[in-house]
Amino acid sequence: MQGTPGGGTRPGPSPVDRRTLLVFSFILAAALGQMNFTGDQVLRVLAKDEKQLSLLGDLEGLKPQKVDFWRGPARPSLPVDMRVPFSELKDIKAYLESHGLAYSIMIKDIQVLLDEERQAMAK
């Protein structure tokens, strides 16, 4: 819930709305920059404690940036969603596994999803 000027609350964007916005943003970026996200994945990571949360924060600070956080590390037990370029997948997954960070694949190939969305929008 988000605060309003009158002191009330209003619901924030739902996860579905957020995902739609992210997909739309990627479509726009891909269209404008002819970017290709073939093989890129979106991983959802769950940190059990502050130490694991800190390890995720370390990924956020890498230069050059290796991952794109869609939902960054905030507190333990809240999911962290990140786009991982195909070229970094092996290393990032190894990092997560070596530190006992549980993850799941939310989007297996972003480009496939973008292509499907483009086709649906063209109809």
Describe the structure.
This is Carboxypeptidase A5. It holds the Pfam family Propep_M14. The chain has 123 residues and is of the alpha+beta class. Helices cover 46% and strands 21% of the residues. It has four helices and six strands; from the N terminus they run ββαβαββαβα. The strands form two sheets. A four-stranded antiparallel beta sheet has the order 4-5-3-6. Strands 1-2 form a two-stranded antiparallel ribbon. The chain is elongated and about 50 Å long.
Structural class: alpha+beta
Task: Bin the helical content.
Answer: 40-55%
**Would you identify the CATH architecture of the largest domain?**
2-Layer Sandwich
Strand content: 15-25%
The rounded Rg comes to: 16 Å
Largest sheet: 4 strands, antiparallel
CATH class of the largest domain: Alpha Beta
Order of helices and strands: EEHEHEEHEH
Distance between the termini: 36 Å
Strands ordered across the widest β-sheet: 4-5-3-6
Please identify which CATH superfamily of the largest domain we are dealing with: Metallocarboxypeptidase-like
How many beta-strand elements?
Answer: 6
Choose one word for the global shape. Answer: elongated
What's the total helix number? 4
Instruction: Return the average pLDDT rounded to an integer.
Output: 82
Structural domain tally: 2
CATH topology assignment of the largest domain: Alpha-Beta Plaits
Question: Any low-confidence stretches, pLDDT <50, length ≥5?
Answer: none
